[in-house]
Amino acid sequence: MFSCSRTSSPGSATCTTAAPCQERQNEVAACEVAEKDLQEGMQEGKEQIKELNERFAKYINNTVLNLQRKNKELLAELKKLEKEEFIAVEKAYQKDYQDFQARVDEIQNELVLLKLEKDKLKARLEKECQLKREFDRDFQHLKKSYEDATAGLEKLQCQYKLLEAQLAQLKLVRDQERIYWQQKVDNLQNLDQAESNTLDLEQALRNMRQEYDQMARRNKEELQRYRHKFEENSVPLQKIKKETETYRNMVTDLRLRDEMHKNHLQEKEREISRIKEYNKSLDKKIEAQTTDFQTLVAVKNGLEQELSGYKSLLNQVEKKARDYNAPVCITAPPPPPPKPAEDVNKMCNARSVEQWCVNDVEKLIQLDEVGAPGIVIGVSVNGKEVWSEGDNNYQTVTVSPEWHPAL
Questions:
Q1: Is the pTM of this model over 0.70?
Q2: How do the domains of the chain map onto residue ranges?
Q3: Do the Cβ atoms of 387 and 395 come closer than 8 Å?
Q4: Which of 246, 310, 317, 402 has the smallest C-beta neighbourhood within 10 Å, fewest atoms?
Q5: pLDDT tens for residues 183-192?
Q6: Which residues face 378 on adjacent strands?
């Protein structure tokens, strides 16, 4: 590289050797400047990373911890509201259940009373039916007696008419005989007979008159006896007629009462059917209330499971936050002086890492602004992601491993 002629002068040799030295000095100076720039860039990158770490720690302290506290407050409020809602629902259910139970007990009591009243009415109806059968039997017996009495009365009336006809005939015969004997007596009076014959005739007339008087007396007594017997039979007949009329009125009254009892029983049966239908509707309502209560219990169990999941997530977040809050070794021993090409590459990589960290922090800040309406569920500080729950959606930002403060 360095060549010098033997024939050259000393000055020219000095000139030729001085040029390479100057170039070497320039190269050394350039290397020193590059190394200095590299050291300054690395120092500046470390300061920026340190500043970013401080900003991120401050963000964690100011945002994540506040969100954790808000989560705890919201969970406490959610538990309180859930407890109040459960108590209110339970009170309403207990009230409705007690009202329905009281109504069911009342209806059952009414049903028992109606059954007792039905049994009483049934016993009374059986008694009335038995009385009606006895009355029908007595009525048939009295009807038979009435028919017998009517037949006897008709027979007595026929005998009375026959006796009247016989009496009229006897009166006619008596009058004819009286006229005949009167004429005969008149004819005999005109004759002059002996006194003995006249006496005998008068005696015969007296005897005949006595016989006719006795016959008339017997007929009159028999007629009086028939009349008295007719009167005696007419009194029981009138009594039987009155009793028959009374029994007819009683039958009419019993029929009316029977109709009234039938109508009353029909009304009671309709009321019992209405009560049964109402009991069925109450059973359906109770089943619906029970189904709603079971649904509420299932919802409560689901909420408890979700709350347990939230608690586990919060515990993980707190654990990761505690891991993040652990002391981190930021001051590391300076690396050995690299070669110029490697230093330039590391400086470029440091600048790219710095730019990547700035972009990730901006994304994290934007994520916090986007996720503000929701609830932040967790932040992974030593992992790979920060995630938040907004309005029914999840947003995820992936952070590169080079962003960790320990790097």
A1: no
A2: 14-326+338-403
A3: yes
A4: 246
A5: 877 776 666 5
A6: 387
